[in-house]
Amino acid sequence: MTGEDTGGKPQNAAQIDPDSHATTTGMTGHGYYDANSRTQWNAIEAVLPMLDNAAARFPLQDDGVITFADYGCSEGRNSVAVMARALETALPRTALPLQTVHSDLPTNDFGTLFQNLRPHGRSVFGSDRVFSSAVGGSMYDQLRPDQSVHLATTFNAIGFLSRRPVAALPGYIQPNGPSAVRGNGRVTDEETAAFGEQARRDVEAFLKVRARELVPGGQLLVQVFGATAEARTCDGIYDLLNDAVLGFVETGEIDTENYARYYQPVYMRRLEELTGPVLEPGHETAGLYDLNEARDYEIAVPFVEQYRQDGDLDTYAAAYVHFFRAFTETVLTNALPDTPGRNALVDRIYARVEEILKAAPDLYPFRYLAIAMRLTRKA
C-alpha cells in the first residue's frame, strides 16, 4: 500500500455505556480505520525491535498455552501484523500452542477483525499451532485470568482516556490545547492539570491490571502518540477540526453549550509521563515491573511526505482528513444531539475540514510524535 488509502465507508456511532471505562465507542468501522491507519503502522514499525526483544524474552514453560494479547486492536490490520511479527520469533522458541488475543471495546468492529484473522476460512498466521480469539472490554479493566499472558502489547490506544475528567472544555476541543502555529483556542492550567492527572491514573490502572494478567517475567510493550519539548501529535489536526466545528457554531447549527461539552478525550503524554508510574516511588505500580527500554521518536507521515514530493493539494487534503476522521468521528458524533440530521451534519463538518485545509495548508502542519516502553513483570 502506498500513501493513505481512502476507501471504506464510515460507521455510524453507537452510544457509550456511561459505566464503562471508555470515552469513545472506538474507531470508525467497516474497514475505514484499517484503510486509513498506515501512519499508525509507521509508528508501530519504529518500535518493532522492542517487540522482537519482548518475543525473545517471555518466559517458556513445559506445558499449557503461550498467550499473546494486544489491547486496542481496532479492526485488526495493524494488530495482526504485530502478532505475525512476534510469532516469527516465538514459534521457534517453543513447541507449545500459541494463542493470540485481540481486545478492544465491545462497540469495536469485531466483524472486520474476524475477517482479518481468518481470511479464506483459515488462520492468517499460517500455523496449526496458532489459535486466535477476541475479547471485548476496556483496556483499563482486567480481561484475562491471573498469570495467563506471556506477552502483552498496546499501540496508539492508551492515549484515549478512560473517563472525562471535566464536564466541559469551552476554549478548545482537545486537552493539550491549540498549536502555536494556529493559536485558535485556550485550555487553562487547571484544565491541563486535570487531564494530566487522569492520564497518570490511566497508566497506573492499565499497568495494574496487566500485572495481574502477566506471568512472572512476562513482557509488556506500550506505545502511543505523544509529545516532546519540540512538538505534539495533536498540533494541526485538532486546530483544523476546531476551526471547522466553530464555523457551525457561528451559523447556529451547533450551539455553544454543545461546543463547550464536546472535546476529544485524548491526551498527548511526554515520555516521562508514561514511565513515571513505573519508576517513581509513591506510585502503586512502581514495584511491579522492570523498565527495559523507553524512547520518544518521530515518524514520517506518508501523506505529508507525498505532498512534499508532488504538491498535490487535493490528494493531500483528502488523505489528511480521512486519517484523523477515522479516530475522531465517533466522539464528535456522540457529542452532537441525536437528531435525524446528525450524521449528515458530521459529513458536512468533515467536508468543511477539507475545504479549510486546502485554503490554508500552512496553518495546519502535522507531525507524528510517539513514545514507547518495554517492561518485564517482576516475579
Which structural traits does this protein have?
379 residues; Rossmann fold; seven-stranded mixed sheet; 39% helix; globular
Notes on the protein architecture:
This protein has a 7-stranded mixed beta sheet with strand order 3-2-1-4-5-7-6, with helices on both faces. The chain has helices spanning 32-35, 38-45, 48-57, 77-90, 110-117, 189-213, 237-250, 256-261, 271-279, 302-310, 313-335, 342-359; strands spanning 66-71, 98-104, 130-136, 149-155, 214-225, 289-299, 368-377. Helices cover 39% and strands 16% of the residues. The relative contact order is 0.16. The protein contains 12 helices and 7 strands. Mean pLDDT is 91; it is low at 1-19. The protein is an alpha/beta fold. α7 crosses α12 (342-359) and α10 packs antiparallel against α11. The protein has a single domain, classed as Rossmann fold. β4 (149-155), α6 and β5 form a beta-alpha-beta unit.
In terms of topology, how is this protein built?
Blueprint: H1 32-35, H2 38-45, H3 48-57, E1 66-71, H4 77-90, E2 98-104, H5 110-117, E3 130-136, E4 149-155, H6 189-213, E5 214-225, H7 237-250, H8 256-261, H9 271-279, E6 289-299, H10 302-310, H11 313-335, H12 342-359, E7 368-377
Parallel strand pairs: 1-2, 1-4, 2-3, 4-5
Antiparallel strand pairs: 5-7, 6-7
Helix pairs in contact: 3-4, 6-9, 7-12, 10-11, 11-12
For the secondary structure, the number of strands is 7
The CATH architecture designation is 3-Layer(aba) Sandwich
Can you identify the CATH class?
Alpha Beta
**Radius of gyration computed on alpha carbons:** 20 Å
Low-confidence stretches: 1-19
Q: Which bin fits the share of residues in helices?
A: 25-40%
The major sheet is characterized as:
7 strands, mixed
- The side-by-side strand order for the widest beta sheet comes to 3-2-1-4-5-7-6
**What gap, in angstroms, lies between the N and C termini?**
43 Å
